[in-house]
């Protein structure tokens, strides 16, 4: 099969399209003919070798945790899915390929585009995991640092739906988008504390730091000097400041993913697809991901 592979750590140029052995499902797994693969920031961090201390990579490696596609082989013991089913979920073998194995998948509603469905596994699981950690209550005010990206946009909507007032940071160009998602937008960077206080004089009850771009000191100040109810998913300085870092690697359950996929299909959850690339252009997609300003999801299509 065709797949994007890297044999060494480095820049986008280490990614290349090549022939790789086709995977076949073991017990509890399905094989998908991939229709869309999600591009995550984790993919370029892994490719650069930055994740080796936490999640060692076996080289050569096919990147990509998120896949959507049609089941074409079913492993022993799988009863919930059959050949021909359209599903979305978490790949165990790498999504940047013509075929991928998966264990946790949800049915993809017929009306939902492949590229939209594939935006949900990582962003949906991460958002829900962190909002659960923050124990956000109805009527509280949440600050989301980095609200316009793939994860932030889902986190904003889930928090708004739970009854929270959400203040979210983004560059000016994304402020109308954040308003449409139900958030009060503010620009990130110097002066953040004052800008947030101006729009949320009631105070900030919890902070979800999605972007990991140095906003933790301001977040602590906005929380009145405590690190309580601040969670980051991307700032490596968290431990030094006593802030909770929530790591990934825990796949969402099929039930949680199924719920979120349905919300996207019925339009309750808005899922923005920033750009779709052919599989062969994975390096370009990851380079754009690495720039860190995509509004919504970057997707590859084999
Ligand atoms: N630990 C975990 O479980 C986990 C899971 C998923 C993702 N992550 C991490 O979370 C981060 C975000 O992922 P993503 O997929 O949402 O990325 P993304 O789609 O690339 O979004 C990045 C967003 O960050 C915003 N941004 C850029 N510079 C910023 C700054 N200085 N302050 C605040 N926001 C800024 C951008 O907004 P503008 O375009 O408006 O500048 C953009 O919308 C990545 O580092 C990723 O590795 C961690």
Tell me about this structure.
- It is built from ten helices and 14 strands.
- The protein has 302 residues and is an alpha/beta fold.
- The protein folds into two domains: 2-119 and 272-301, Medium-chain alcohol dehydrogenases, catalytic domain (Quinone Oxidoreductase, Chain A, domain 1), CATH 3.90.180.10; 123-245, NAD(P)-binding Rossmann-like Domain (Rossmann fold, 3-Layer(aba) Sandwich), CATH 3.40.50.
- The strands form three sheets. Strands 3, 4, 5, 6, 13 and 14 form a six-stranded mixed sheet that branches. Strands 9-8-7-10-11-12 form a six-stranded parallel sheet, sandwiched between helices. Strands 1-2 form a two-stranded antiparallel ribbon.
- Helix 4 (150-161) links the parallel strand 7 and strand 8.
- Helix 3 crosses helix 4 (150-161), helix 3 packs across helix 9 (254-265) and helix 6 (192-199) packs parallel to helix 7 (216-222).
- The longest helix has 15 residues, at 120-134.
- It binds NADP nicotinamide-adenine-dinucleotide phosphate.
- NADP nicotinamide-adenine-dinucleotide phosphate (NAP) is lined by residues 40-42, 45, 122, 126, 145-146, 148-152, 169-171, 174, 188, 210-213, 215, 233-234, 246-248, 289, 292-295.
- The site of NADP nicotinamide-adenine-dinucleotide phosphate (NAP) has 33 residues, from helix 1, helix 3 and helix 4.
